[in-house]
Amino acid sequence: MSADAGIVIIGASLAGAKAAQALRLDHGYDGPITLIGDEPHLAYQRPALSKGYLLGITGPGDLDVLKPQFYADQDVTLALGAPATALDLDARRVWLADGTEFPFARVLIATGARPRRLQVPGADLDGVCYLRNRDDSEHLAAALRAAGHVVVIGAGWLGSELAAASRTFGNHTTVIDPLPTPLYYVLGDQIGGLIARRHRDHGVNLLLGDGVEAILGTRSVEAVQTITGRTIPADLVIVGVGAAPNTELAQAAGLHVDGGIITDEHLRTSHPAAVAAGDVARHQHPRYLNPVRIEHWDNAAIHGTAAAATLLGEPTTIDHVPYLFSTQYGSTLEYVGLPTTWDRIITRGGHATYGFTAFWLDRRIPVAALTIDQWGAADHLRTLIATGHPADPQQLADPDTPLPNLLPNAPSPHRNLQPQQRR
Ligand SMILES: Cc1cc2nc3c(=O)[nH]c(=O)nc-3n(C[C@H](O)[C@H](O)[C@H](O)COP(=O)(O)OP(=O)(O)OC[C@H]3O[C@@H](n4cnc5c(N)ncnc54)[C@H](O)[C@@H]3O)c2cc1C
Q1: Residue ranges of domains in the chain, CATH in brackets
Q2: How far is the centre of ligand 1, averaged over its atoms, from the C-alpha of 63 (Å)?
Q3: How do residues 352-371 score in pLDDT, each as one tens digit?
């Protein structure tokens, strides 16, 4: 082992664990690594929390980001179960809530995000649930099993998955969202309308263009009152109205924070000792004008690995086309790109058929794409969008033109797009 003060990683989840893995296995770093996590669990994957784990199909062991023996085998010190509460970047020290103190040479902040809270009367009643961590998912699974009438607030990716899960448990399920369609800001009304149809086809009572006025009940939830005056019976309310980055520690340490920890394209923060990664980081992405904060599994994994290189002074530029997957009603939706401006949407294949794909175009250049149950397509779509070249709308629409045939031979320089992050 070298004599350096080592690397401390705050946030023992996907980005943090991937960074530890890359430090040891990709870079052969042999200094001290400490992984600090406020949860008692080893780093685990969150996507299954609203899917297989919630439905009881996936076991806890399947959630591990790294095999449990990795930490001992690779001499990674685990400090789990207590949050880091103070960080002095100049003194290069971090303190946990239980009083433990760790010195470091460099620190990775990968503290993720937490659910945004609903601010309406009755929001603190029993039976109002949020989903972010493993304990939430276990609690929610029990509540969904016991519920009869469920109201999901928010029809984004998470809300849509939770509505599907609620239907799988056999509950009467209502989804409330103020926008005209689910995922309206991401997909627009045409494709958002398709998602709406899928919910309704599966028996969901989808209330769009309406909001929550209050949650009614004495001790626990009994109903949800909407802004337009509807009263929806409910014994469980699940809130999925977005997530906020856990930036408090970074902000108190003096880092530049603005809707996330601001980083350059290598995840370097405003202090030379600190790097940020994953859901908490708002990084300067070469494809977009403004820094972007992306709450996707794929992004956190890429960030974690890239952060390791940056921590060791060998930075790589992070310019991946964002990618998200979602499972709803037994189908897998894959979305590539970021919500941005577009002037045209082209679809290929019927929405209920294998191979459905939608392309969002800005002046004939594909800037985003969605595919449903089309294994392997996302990689081609990512490459297509990465090129930044105009595409032939007729070919895009033609299901007989294989996706690889859409790819131009040579990539063009990155275009500066302006994402409108309105999730
Ligand atoms: C229910 C759910 C379903 C999802 N499904 C999908 C999906 O289908 N597809 C997809 O692409 N993405 C999905 N995501 C998003 C994806 O899981 C996240 O983008 C990813 O987990 C981000 O990883 P992260 O390591 O940056 O942050 P997180 O996973 O949020 O981890 C941050 C960790 O840091 C801890 N922490 C915070 N503050 C402190 C502190 N002061 N001290 C110590 N520890 C701290 C947190 O408790 C947490 O354990 C889903 C997320 C959720 C919650």
Answers
A1: 7-114+244-311 (3.50.50.60), 128-241 (3.50.50.60), 330-406 (3.30.390.30)
A2: 12
A3: 556 689 999 999 999 999 99
Q: How many CB atoms are located within 10 Å of the residue 344 CB?
A: 12
Binding pocket residue ranges, ligand 1, CB within 6 Å = 10-16, 36-39, 46-47, 49-50, 83-84, 110-113, 131-132, 158, 246, 249, 278-279, 295-298, 300, 324-326
Encoded tokens for 387: 């090129």
CA 105 to centroid of ligand 1, rounded, Å: 25
C-beta separation of 172 from 230 below 8 A: no
Q: Which whole-number Å values give the CA distances from 139 to 10, 60, 134, 163, in the listed order? A: 26, 14, 9, 16
On whether the CB atoms of residues 351 and 194 are closer than 8 A, the answer is yes
Show the beta-strand stretches assigned E in 53-211.
76-80, 84-88, 93-96, 101-103, 106-109, 113-115, 128-129, 149-153, 172-177, 205-208
DSSP string computed for 371-415: EES-TTHHHHHHHHHHHT----HHHHH-TTS-GGGG--SSPPPPP
Integer Cα distance of 147 and 162 in angstroms = 13
**CB environment 250-266: b (16+ within 10 A), e (fewer):** beebebebeebbbbbbb
What would the two tokens of residue 34 be?
A: 């400490």
Contacts of 209 (CB under 8 A, 6+ apart): 178, 179, 180
d(CA 312, CA 187): 39
Summarize pLDDT for 190-201 with one digit per residue, the tens. Answer: 999 999 999 999
**Helices 14-21 and 297-311, interaxial angle, to 10°?**
40
Describe the crossing of helices 157-168 and 184-201 by its angle, rounded to 10 degrees: 10
Q: State which residues of the chain have pLDDT below 50.
A: 1-2, 410-423
Over the stretch 311-333, which tens digit does the pLDDT of each residue have? 999 999 899 999 999 999 999 99
For the chain, the distance separating the N- and C-terminal CA atoms, rounded to the nearest angstrom, is 44
* Total residues belonging to the chain: 423
Partners of 357 in beta bridges: 348, 371
